[in-house]
Amino acid sequence: MKGFKFRYLLLAIPIALALLCVGVYSQIGSFAPAAPREPSTETPTPFEPATETLYHVGPTETPSATDTELPPLPTVTPTPAGGSPPWAPFAGPVHPASTPIPTPAGEILQGKDTINIALLGIDTSETAGAYRTDAIMILSLDRARQSAALISFPRDLYVFIPAYGMQRINVAFLEGQELHYPGGRFGLFADTMKYNFGVRVDHYAMMNFQGFKDMVNALDGIDVNASKPLTDFRLGYGNYTVPAGVTHMDGSTALWYTRARHTTSDFDRERRQQEAILAIAQRLLDMRAIANLPGFFNTFMKYFESDLSIDTVSPYVGLAGTVSPSSLRRFRIIEPDGCVNWTTPEGGMVLLPKYDAIHAMLETALGG
User: Fold this and answer.
1) 147-153 and 329-332: which strand pairing?
2) Residues 359, 198: contact at Cβ < 8 Å?
3) Distances in whole angstroms, Cα of residue 171 to Cα of each of 12, 31, 165, 225, 255
4) Which of 86, 199, 245, 316 has the most CB atoms within 10 Å of its CB?
5) Which CA distances in Å does 118 have to 47, 93, 134, 165, 211?
6) Are 362 and 46 within 8 A, CB to CB?
7) Per-residue pLDDT tens digits for 139-197
8) 68, burial (CB in 10 Å: exposed 0-12, middle 13-18, buried 19+)
9) What whole-number distance in Å separates Cα of residue 324 and Cα of residue 13?
10) Nearest CA-CA partner of 196 in 176, 167, 217, 222
């Protein structure tokens, strides 16, 4: 792919392809129970179309990390003789559930001119092939409304995974391969999103840590606009600070910024991930990056896995002229309004989704 095709693929729809680099932001470990999370200290803000939406409804108090009271869930009822199981037409669980299994969510209706891309983050270098998708976002591009939305899903959301059972959402992609699920890894992930949230996922893009660092370096760094200061431990630096405002970052700094969580929470890290994504998209829109595109593209293909093609994204080329990084609508599921802390009987710290609240947010972000 040379000359025109570089520019066509990487600049004609910079938001879509810049956001494909999201899959680099989370630490990967074994499937042991996650370490306790710090309570979120973020203050949600009202919905503004050109800014991030911290999804917030209901009471403002933050539940304790030891909360054990389950939010109301649609429960699985016994299957009538000769009838279909409550999870039909999806495959039923093979593992016992620690919570009631929700029934399938109502579909979020979207027009034919919309494409939803799952942006997934892994670290294959640390897991020898067995990995979790610990960064999960959905990028939705709508040609009819000339808009784009980015939605972050916490990695510890405790959901129903068809053909498996109740588990963290970040294992769905891996289990798709382990279970030989129809459509493989992406097939099970897409069905998990559809079952729990009614979201249609059309394609996926996945990248690892090294790919992210090399890509940012190929762009001569990115200018990240941090909405809040961050001070956290950084290997080789001790306590390292990024002030609020614009900071130019190389690949290593940008990776640290999107992964750091010793002094904050997973929810704050999701915000920083989105800030880095916007910086990459803006960098691609800057014509000064043209000279770096060959190196960027080679790095992109080396570390990037996806079912996307030029034919898939080309119908959305018109969005490049109307959707800018600053106009991208951003959404995150945060506690206590979209989820609540819970400890499984096995000792795992997870997040129970508040399905009605999440569905209402998704209707705002994706419906129309």
Assistant:
1) parallel
2) yes
3) 34, 9, 11, 31, 22
4) 199
5) 23, 24, 12, 21, 17
6) no
7) 898 888 888 888 999 999 999 999 999 999 999 998 998 899 999 999 999 999 999 99
8) exposed
9) 10
10) 167
Q: Which of 204, 205, 221 is nearest to 213 (CA)?
A: 221
Residue 212, phi-psi category: left (phi > 0), alpha (psi -120 to 50), beta (remainder)? alpha
Q: What is the DSSP string of 179-226?
A: TT-TTHHHHHHHHHHHHHH-----EEEEE-HHHHHHHHHHTT-EEEEE
pLDDT in tens, 170-183: 999 989 988 999 99
How much of the chain, in percent, has pLDDT values that exceed 90? 36
How do strand 203-207 and strand 304-306 relate by DSSP bridges? antiparallel
232, burial (CB in 10 Å: exposed 0-12, middle 13-18, buried 19+)? middle
Instruction: pLDDT band for 346, please (50, 70, 90 cuts).
Output: confident
Task: Please state the φ and ψ torsions of residue 355, each to the nearest 5 degrees.
Answer: -60, -40
d(CA 193, CA 270): 18
CA angle 167, 170, 176 (to 5 degrees): 80
- Contact of 280 with 219, CB cutoff 8 Å: yes
Percent of the chain with pLDDT over 70: 65
Answer whether 140's CB lies under 8 Å from 157's CB.
Answer: no
Confidence of residue 319 (pLDDT cuts 50, 70, 90): low
CATH number of 4-29+48-71+95-366: 3.40.630.190
Rounded to the nearest 5 degrees, what angle is found at the Cα of 136, between the Cα atoms of 106 and 309?
90
Where in the chain are the domains? 4-29+48-71+95-366
| C-alpha–C-alpha distance, residues 172 and 156, integer Å | 12
Q: Which carries the bigger pLDDT value, residue 215 or residue 247? A: 247
Q: Are β-strands 114-121 and 135-142 bridged in parallel, bridged antiparallel, or unpaired?
A: antiparallel
Model-wide pTM > 0.85:
no
Spatial distance between the Cα atoms of 201 and 204, rounded to a whole number of angstroms: 8
